[in-house]
């Protein structure tokens, strides 16, 4: 490619005679081999074959200067890599999912990996026909034949899979095991020590097999009710429509009803946030009139009236993002790994005590 003077004394690249900037053009401008340019710009920048940090910087600067746009389809055909990470989260309405996406995005970009979120449960159909460097699937335990679908994807695609499941063992994919069952029982015990009645705020999961009452979090709550001899556990479950806004509206109606709750375990973090806002707007004192414990980590950016007490996993977003990105970068043959996340109590301003238990 020839270069011309733009009148300012600087040398500017001339337009390609072919009308399209190629990888060869980038390599020539950066003064590196075609192979090195390919490694840097194909999402394999973390590989030693991509060269030093200064070499990678030169290649990326040349690509930006020339306006080079990689052909991701051609890369996928050639390398079996899609240049990105897929997060099958099933929703965009959960602060936990948003925080995880932001963490993966930031870590992935340092390896030239983009992040795509699937906001429905059709992860098997998508991943069976797509090429990705890595994919996290979170709803395996809640969809019909989920574990077998993961095994089929592992056998038929080159995507580095991370399965979020308490039912699976690692094979040629990683497994993250994080069960809140014990945490829910401890949350119930903690609140029950101060209240005669502890309620569960849960989403109406009518679209999932078995619905809300078949979900492991609900069954753990019902078992805790039974262990304390507190009668009909299902009567203590308050259902609202899925989603942050619908949870807020349902919580406001609940707070202003004839029997507002005094102690609530929230099925998810986003429901805890919605309940906290609804209580404040309804004139209730927290934790004086109402104590709240969330099941799952609560992103600090979503807490408008002080930290919410919750059971969760320490540094969960960074740890999970690290596993996913590592799976995307290290694509060699390797056995899967089991990553077990233990839950603990993080006291906030929505419970009366500040000591852990």
Automatic annotation (TrEMBL):
Keywords: DNA-binding, Transcription, Transcription regulation. GO terms for molecular function: DNA-binding transcription factor activity; transcription cis-regulatory region binding. CDD domains: HTH_LacI (cd01392). Residues 21-79 form the HTH lacI-type domain. InterPro entries: HTH_LacI, LacI/GalR-like_sensor, Lambda_DNA-bd_dom_sf, Peripla_BP_I. PANTHER family: HTH-TYPE TRANSCRIPTIONAL REGULATOR GALS, LACI-RELATED TRANSCRIPTIONAL REPRESSOR. This is LacI family transcriptional regulator. It comes from Brachybacterium ginsengisoli.
């Amino acid at each position: 490619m020839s270069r011309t003077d733009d009148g300012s004394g600087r040398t500017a690249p001339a337009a390609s005679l072919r009308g399209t900037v190629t990888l060869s053009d980038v390599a020539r401008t950066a003064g590196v081999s075609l192979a090195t340019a390919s490694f840097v710009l194909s999402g394999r920048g973390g590989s030693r074959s991509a060269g030093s940090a200064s070499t990678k910087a030169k290649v990326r600067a040349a690509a930006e200067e020339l306006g080079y746009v990689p052909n991701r389809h051609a890369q996928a055909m050639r390398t079996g890599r899609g240049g990105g990470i897929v997060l099958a989260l099933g929703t965009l309405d959960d602060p936990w999912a948003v925080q995880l996406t932001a963490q993966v995005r930031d870590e992935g970009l340092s390896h030239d990996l983009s992040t795509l979120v699937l906001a429905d449960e059709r992860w098997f159909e998508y991943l069976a026909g797509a090429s990705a460097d890595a994919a996290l699937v979170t709803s395996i335990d809640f969809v019909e034949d989920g574990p077998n679908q993961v095994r089929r994807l592992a056998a038929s695609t080159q995507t580095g899979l991370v399965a979020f499941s308490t039912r699976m063992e690692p094979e040629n994919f990683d497994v993250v095991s994080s069960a809140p069952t014990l945490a829910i029982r401890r949350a119930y015990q903690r609140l029950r020590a101060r209240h005669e009645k502890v309620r569960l705020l849960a989403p109406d999961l009518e679209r999932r097999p078995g619905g809300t009452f078949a979900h492991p979090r609900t069954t753990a709550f019902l078992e805790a009710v039974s262990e304390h001899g507190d009668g009909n556990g299902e009567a203590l479950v308050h259902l609202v429509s899925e989603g942050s806004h619908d949870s807020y509206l349902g919580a406001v109606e609940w707070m202003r009803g004839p029997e507002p709750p005094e102690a609530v375990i929230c099925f998810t973090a986003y429901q805890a946030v919605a309940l906290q806002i609804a209580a404040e707007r309804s004139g209730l004192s927290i934790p004086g009139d109402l104590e709240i414990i969330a099941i799952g980590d609560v992103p600090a950016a979503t807490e408008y009236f002080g930290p919410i007490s919750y059971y969760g996993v320490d540094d969960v977003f960074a740890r999970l993002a690290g596993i996913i990105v590592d799976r995307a970068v290290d694509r060699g043959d390797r056995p899967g790994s089991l990553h077990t996340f233990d839950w603990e109590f993080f006291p906030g301003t929505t419970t009366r005590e500040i000591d852990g238990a």
